[in-house]
Specification:
By secondary structure, the chain is an alpha+beta fold. Helices cover 43% and strands 19% of the residues. The chain is built from 11 helices and 10 strands.
């Protein structure tokens, strides 16, 4: 039984070898028939005046990279070329029904296809790959599919960066032959996207393949040259820049906006403004690394520039307000310019809802019940009121609101001197219950006892006119500070709405 089985396998193996040998001999005879007198240097036509018609198709596999600085796009494509070679026809019946033959590209005449807008070396521009293989049909149709990684130039418009859309093209054509020698035509079906791999940075919106004819100025050869254009439209995915650049910038705007809530005489407003400005400058450098060096300014760069400008204006206004507030502590207190005071009272005070009357009544909310019954003595003079208004400007800690901004802004005719002094006295008694007041008094007593004997000279009296001037300067400082806050808020809202919403929407409508 084992002998019969061995004989069966020997016979089967012999038939297989005989059939394979026959197939090998058939292909060898076919190659000898086709290439014995074939010349790969001449065009595959019997009549020299005839043109070789080359059909061109393209598969887009992947968009590898778009270098905005160098304006180069890198793509992975397959270029398919088909043409009719009159010297490569045979009868399949004479060659064991062989209808297709695979050969190396070095044995045949090839179209001299070239990428005219190549961004690589000159040798990289030719559509050819060493060791590529062609398929020859028995009817003489040659099919050549070449996988390529093409670097081509692409003009980049960064006006709407990072909401920009770019249109890039790859131009294919014959380097030497004009249309009378090699005629390029499009294969039916257009660009093939079946093998396309999505890109992490760009969305592919549209692809197109079309043919044009250009004159001899484009190429070394004479006559008109057919050009195949592969066009692709891509749109940048902006979510990365939304999180890395735009969202932090808006947060910095809110931080600058919050600095207006600090009392107008606090120097921390300047520190916050400078920190925000330096951070915005770093973000501006991040954008500059990703856009080409052109005269076009991207939308995102304009947005950060406007935010930096508003930040600078807020720093200038904070310095101005601190200077105005500081004038109320000078001795003698200068008079507020009448034009400035008039503008604040008649215009800015109405816009910012800042009342020009004495503001002690508005803040006299923590008064104890025993303060109402305690009689007011004549010893509480204008001098004691001035001391009350400014004794905590330098020693009050961060948890307390300075009494300087609680100054009455102006003394109207219907407000009597006794009512102002009474409100000030009640506010003073309220302050005595605060920890900062006791800490300040305790610190002053220790410092006085340790360094010098107590002063016995009475302070010079403060006139009502001086107190009124102090109140006016504080009123002007607060009004200007509130007006700056409103202007900054409105400017920031308009900037964000225009640059990040309206402008990108306008671009989409145009496209």
């Amino acid at each position: 039984m084992n002998n019969y089985r061995a004989i069966f396998w020997y016979v089967l193996l012999g038939l297989h070898n005989a059939f394979g040998l026959q197939v090998g001999l058939t292909e060898k005879r076919l190659r000898l028939y086709l290439f014995s007198e074939y010349n790969s240097m001449t065009r595959p036509v019997q009549n020299y005046s005839h043109a070789v018609t080359v059909g061109v198709g393209l598969w887009l596999n992947q968009i590898l990279d778009l270098d905005e600085k160098k304006q180069i796009i890198t793509t992975s494509v397959w270029v398919k070329e088909t043409w009719f070679d009159e010297s490569l026809k045979w009868d399949p019946n004479k060659y064991e029904n062989t209808t297709r033959l695979v050969v190396f590209s070095t044995k045949l005449w090839l179209p001299d296809m070239f990428v005219f807008n190549t961004a690589g070396g000159h040798s990289e521009g030719f559509v050819n790959v060493t060791g590529s293989i062609l398929i020859i049909d028995s009817s003489g149709i040659v099919t050549w599919t070449v996988p390529l990684i093409i670097k081509s130039s692409c003009p980049v418009d960064v006006t709407y960066f990072p909401y920009d859309q770019q249109t890039c093209e790859i131009h294919f054509g014959s380097w030497i032959y004009d249309v009378t020698k090699v005629d390029l035509q499009l294969l039916s079906g257009g660009p093939n996207l079946k093998q396309y791999i999505l890109n992490n940075e760009f969305d592919l919106l549209n692809v197109n393949l079309y043919r044009t004819t250009v004159d001899e100025t484009c190429c070394p050869g004479n006559g008109s040259h057919p050009i195949i254009h592969f066009q692709m439209t891509i749109k940048r995915k902006s979510i990365y820049y939304d999180y890395i650049v735009i969202a932090p910038t808006i947060m910095l705007c809110i931080l600058t906006l919050a600095s207006f809530w600090l009392p107008c005489h606090h120097g921390e407003k300047i520190a916050i403004g400078l920190t925000v400005f330096l951070t915005l400058y770093v973000l501006q450098l991040l954008i500059a690394e990703n856009v080409p060096d052109t005269n076009t300014t991207p939308v995102l760069g304009v947005f950060i520039f406007l935010v930096m400008t508003l930040n600078c204006i807020s720093l200038i206004m904070a310095t101005l307000v601190m200077g105005i507030k500081k004038r109320s502590t000078l001795k003698p207190v200068p008079q507020v310019p009448p034009l400035m005071l008039k503008a604040c009272k008649q215009l800015l005070a109405k816009i910012t809802c800042t009342p020009p009357e004495s503001r002690f009544h508005a803040y006299n909310l923590c008064q104890e019940e025993d303060d109402k019954d305690k009689p007011f003595t004549a010893t509480e003079s204008w001098d004691s009121l001035d001391h009350l208004l400014h004794e905590f400007d330098d020693v009050a800690d961060d948890e307390d609101v300075s009494s300087a901004h609680l100054l009455p802004c102006a003394v109207s005719d219907d407000i009597s001197q006794s009512s102002i002094l009474a409100s000030a006295l009640s506010y003073r008694r309220t302050l005595k219950n605060r920890r900062s007041y006791r800490r300040a008094i305790h610190g002053e007593n220790q410092q006085s006892s340790a360094t010098s004997p107590p002063q016995t000279d009475p302070k010079a009296p403060v006139s009502p006119e001086t107190l009124v001037r102090k109140q006016e300067w504080c009123f002007v400082a607060e009004t200007v500070d509130k007006a700056s806050f409103i202007v900054y808020l409105a400017s920031m809202f308009i900037t964000i709405l225009t640059v990040l919403v309206i402008v990108p929407s306008f671009q989409n409508l145009n496209i």
